[in-house]
Design a protein that fits this description.
single chain, mainly alpha, 2 helices, elongated
Length: about 60
């Protein structure tokens, strides 16, 4: 993934070269505000569900 500064420079260059042409569209996706992508290890893994065996999943709760 490129940094926002790199993407912005490329986008500005593209606009300077193509901006006077008709019918163009430019979408820029900048990821920088979303970092860090991974939580620090000390926070654990809160979104990983506990493992449930297939046999327990297939038994209707009221039968247990």
């Amino acid at each position: 993934l490129e940094l926002g500064d790199e993407i912005t420079d490329v986008a500005i260059d593209w606009i300077n070269r193509n901006g006077k042409k008709d019918d163009w569209f430019l979408h820029i996706n900048i990821w920088d505000p979303h970092q860090p992508y991974r939580a620090p290890q000390e926070l654990g893994e809160p979104f990983i569900a506990p493992t449930i065996s297939l046999s327990k999943m297939l038994i209707i709760p009221w039968v247990r």
